[in-house]
Write a structure and sequence with these properties.
mainly alpha, Four Helix Bundle (Hemerythrin (Met), subunit A), globular
């Protein structure tokens, strides 16, 4: 591999990790901007802030598990995600966190990022930076998922009804569109 290729992969890795940090920071800033009453009361549709933060944390945990499975030479179950079950998956993960207090769920969001970065440390620059590669698509799915949710929160805070489309039709579709 040429030195320029190695440098390009390393640069792309840094760019992706920077985007991960930027999008997550925006989620956290927007959540921090919300009122305490929005934590457990409907904020966007029927979902409270806790209902929004919970599946974001859960999705990231799914990606961490998928990266670990790839490292162990196994096909991640996430790659077989049935797009038709997205609402069911979200509702299931909201229910799983129903009895937790918001601050525990918020800490899962923060802690999950540390576990993600630990797992990404095992992924080569080339694997993470190559467009269309499974690891690349999984990272992009987290970036897009964070962006989707912070845009919804920002729109609500601004008193806007909707939010402009920010990425793929669905995060799972992006993650599963790659084969190994």
């Amino acid at each position: 591999m040429a030195e320029d290729d190695v440098r390009s992969f390393a640069d792309e890795r840094r760019r992706l990790l920077s985007r991960l940090e930027m999008e997550r920071n925006q989620v956290i800033r927007n959540v921090d901007t919300c009122r305490i009453r929005d934590i457990d009361r409907p904020f966007i549709g029927d979902w409270s802030l806790k209902d929004i933060v919970g599946p974001v944390a859960s999705w990231e945990a799914e990606v961490v598990s998928s990266l670990r499975e790839l490292r162990e030479g196994r096909r991640p179950a996430l790659l077989d995600f049935d797009q038709a079950k997205l609402d069911e998956w979200n509702n299931d993960h909201v229910e799983r966190k129903r009895d937790l207090n918001f601050w525990s769920v918020f800490e899962q969001l923060r802690g999950g990022r540390g576990r993600l970065l630990e797992e990404l440390a095992h992924v080569s620059d080339q694997d993470i930076a190559t467009e269309g590669n499974v690891q690349n698509r999984l990272v992009l799915s987290i970036i897009d998922h964070d962006r989707e949710h912070w845009h919804h929160i920002a729109a609500r805070l601004a008193g806007m009804e909707g939010v402009r489309h920010t990425g793929p039709e669905s995060v799972p579709e992006e993650a599963t569109s790659t084969t190994i």
